[in-house]
UniProtKB/TrEMBL annotation:
Belongs to the UPF0053 family. This is Magnesium and cobalt efflux protein CorC. It comes from Methylobacter tundripaludum (strain ATCC BAA-1195 / DSM 17260 / SV96). It holds the Pfam family CorC_HlyC. PROSITE patterns: CBS. CDD domains: CBS_pair_CorC_HlyC_assoc. One of its GO terms (molecular function) is flavin adenine dinucleotide binding. Residues 70-129, 134-191 form the CBS domain.
């Protein structure tokens, strides 16, 4: 057995032996080598930017875990297991999701999943039916599960959503197959997204707005009569990252004066959508 150790992916610099070996073999020795080859291919126009971005996303997904992208339980839209179907219709209509975690008492105890299509089919038969009578079993995964493994399991089992549990078996949040795919292909918008508007800024109420992260700073300042633009960033998404000094996670918030920003959609490379609430 050879005593040689494989080159570390985290090594800041390769030794001269590694460099010579790479030159002689022409093969990537680690993940960073592989990415460098792919980026060179893009520069030579053998790959386009979108293709490279997706390949990078695939490679990154294999290293990320469920906890990195899950929706925290405090942000889950849930329904009580003992609620009558008629009483939850306003909530289902308001949010327009296809699936809702069913809880027993509080959000840490998810006991099933309610499908909107099941609700619509059964409510016509009997409005007084309880949620627990038509809910389905939930797919449960640990926070530590790798995203590539989760994606394979969701596809194999035909599940679109999984409940994430912590080390004590309590609900920590949820993750959908769309959340995982967005780490590979970027933002996926659907017909229920409020922000699917021709402009950058969509007003939801008198003090709440949905804002695309690509909104130019000049346009943001003009709309809200602010003076946030500088030469350091061009968009409101860049402003948020600059203020936080890291790539935020979904649900992370930032208060600037009388404005509270909340990150609604983000992938491993950039912020996509923000919610802005004017604090009264």
């Amino acid at each position: 057995m050879s005593d040689e150790q494989p080159p570390s992916r985290n090594s800041p610099q390769k030794s001269w032996v590694d460099k010579i070996s790479h030159l002689l073999t022409g093969e990537p020795q680690d993940l960073e080598d592989l990415l460098e080859i792919l980026r060179e291919a893009r520069e030579k126009r053998l790959l386009d930017t979108d293709a490279l971005s997706m390949i990078e996303g695939v490679l990154q997904v294999s290293q990320m875990r469920v906890r990195d992208i899950m929706i925290p339980r405090v942000q889950m839209v849930v329904v009580p297991k003992d609620a009558e179907l008629e009483t939850i219709m306003p909530l289902v209509t308001e949010f327009g999701h296809s699936r809702y975690p069913v809880i027993d008492g509080d959000r840490s105890k998810v006991v099933g999943v309610l499908l909107a299509k099941d609700l619509l089919a059964r409510i016509l038969e009997n409005k007084t039916l309880k949620v627990h009578e038509i809910m389905r079993l939930s797919c449960v995964v640990p926070e530590s599960k790798r995203l590539n493994v989760l994606l394979k399991e969701l596809r194999t089992n035909g599940n679109h959503m999984a409940i994430v549990v912590d080390e004590y078996g309590q609900s920590a949040g949820l993750v959908t197959i769309e959340d995982v795919l967005e780490q590979i292909v970027g933002e996926i918008e659907d017909e229920h997204d409020d922000h699917e508007d021709e402009g950058y800024i969509f007003q939801r109420s008198s003090n709440e707005y949905m804002i695309k992260a690509l909104t130019p700073m000049d346009e943001f300042d003009e709309y809200f009569s602010t003076h946030l633009a500088t030469d350091e960033y061009d968009t409101i998404g860049g402003f948020i990252v600059s203020q936080l000094e890291h790539m935020p996670k979904k649900g992370e918030s930032l208060i600037v004066g009388a404005m509270k920003f909340e990150v609604i959609r983000v992938d491993s490379r950039r912020v996509h959508l923000l919610k802005l609430k004017i604090i009264e």
